[in-house]
Amino acid sequence: MRRQFVRLHRWFGVATALFLFVAGLTGAIIAWDHELDAALNPSFYQARTAGPVLSSLELANRVEAADPRLQVTYLPLAVEPGQTLQMMVLPHTDPATKQPYPLGFNQIAVDPVTGGIQGRREWGAVSLARLNLIPFIYKLHYTLQLPFTGGIDIGTWLMGIVGIVWLFDSVIALCLSFPSLKAWRKSFAFRLKRGGYALTFDLHRSGGVWIWGLLMIVALTSISMNLPSQVVRPIVSRLSTLTPDPINNPEILRAPQPGDQALSRERIVELAGQAGRAMHLAAPPGGLYYAEFLHTYGVGFYTPGNDHGDIGLGNPWLYWDAATGKQLAAQIPGKGSAGDIFMQVQFPLHSGRILGLGGRILISAVGIAVAVLSITGLLIWLKKLNARRRSAQNANLARDASGAAARS
Questions:
Q1: What fold characterizes domain 244-335?
Q2: Which domain of life is it from (predicted)?
């Protein structure tokens, strides 16, 4: 059995090493995406004008009026002092061509005092330019920047499958790390003085053992991040009831009717304020998302700058039918079934934000460790591959020499 486990670990490791190397390094970086992006692009983050700010709703209306080609799809409902208001936008359909208008950007930074647009960018574009670098790395982390093909998000699926293989391989690796009870201490040791291959081997084996629990958490949550509705939710739903939501359960949505018109953002924010007070939510409505393809509005409840959730299980989100204003679903951190809470904890665990600043530092360290484990695993495989080839060559030479001697 051990021989089969060694073979599985070898091929699982080789197949996923480069993917995990990229995911580990990019994950260590994007734990600080907001801070790094702001440091690299102060003109995109810092408002040029001081003074009383306009409301976010008014700013969104001005942006759409100034450029009828676009619609605002994500809108922070408050802005941090001295900062720009960063909106996500999508193009309307051009009546002449029946195709979306070619905007060339999907995110804008707006001066909240004047309403002027300070910057535009295509979030996630394949670009190493300063303005695009951090969004590029963020998207690289979970899609490898691979495109949609035939309506399938190839990159997201691929990284999700890598996560599944990694999860199983982590269990196999732990079994292989403890070949016997008598030698268990060796599995935690690092032969620093030996250096060379011995240290490389220990970095891979012992390094993995020391942080094995964290690696399992990151592997499991990576599957949940990439394949929630395809893999994780169906499995969890067999063990615990899951509360439906419009994103993962579109069957709860009302079929659009002829003449349907989306309610105004102002009306949805009013409904959100009423619902938040009725549910005794501590934070005000903090961000509004409009999913036209789902005919749904979503409102997150958080204070300015806390859209990711600084600590705990994240932020509450409520959803409304865009045409009727009927509330469709509510996701309240810490509430719901065991399955609901399991799903709620996935992003906070994966990002480290469940523990606040300390968790983000920890997840950055784990990301670097994943990269080191991937590289050391490849080095060990290459060394053993070369050793097997030399052994085979020596055996062939010995066989040839023996045959020649027998013939002479």
A1: Nuclear Transport Factor 2; Chain: A, (3.10.450)
A2: Bacteria
Question: In terms of Cα–Cα distance, which of 321, 328, 313 is closest to 245?
Answer: 328
Q: Which amino acid is at 132?
A: N
**CB distance 325 to 268 below 8 Å:** yes
Rounded to whole angstroms, the Cα distance separating 75 from 95 reads: 26
Q: Using the structure block, give the residue that is written with the tokens 């079929």.
A: 255
Please, is 406 exposed, middle or buried when counting C-beta atoms within 10 Å of its C-beta (0-12, 13-18, 19+)? exposed
Euclidean distance between the first and final Cα of the chain, in Å? 45
For residue 394, what are its two tokens? 């020596």
- Which are the contacts of 146, defined by CB distance < 8 A and separation ≥ 6? 154, 155, 158
Print pLDDT tens along the chain (408 aa): 788 888 889 999 999 999 999 999 999 999 999 999 999 999 999 999 999 999 999 999 999 999 999 999 999 999 999 999 999 999 999 999 989 999 999 999 999 999 999 999 999 999 999 999 999 999 999 999 998 888 899 999 999 999 999 999 999 999 888 887 777 788 888 888 888 888 999 999 999 999 999 999 999 999 999 999 999 999 999 999 999 988 888 888 888 778 788 999 999 999 999 999 999 999 999 999 999 889 999 999 999 988 887 788 999 999 999 999 999 999 999 999 999 999 999 999 999 999 999 999 999 999 999 999 999 999 999 988 888 888 778 777 777 667 666 666
Q: Is 327 left (phi over 0), alpha (psi -120 to 50) or beta?
A: beta
Cβ density class 65-83: b for 16+ within 10 Å, e for less: eebeebbbebbbbbbeeeb
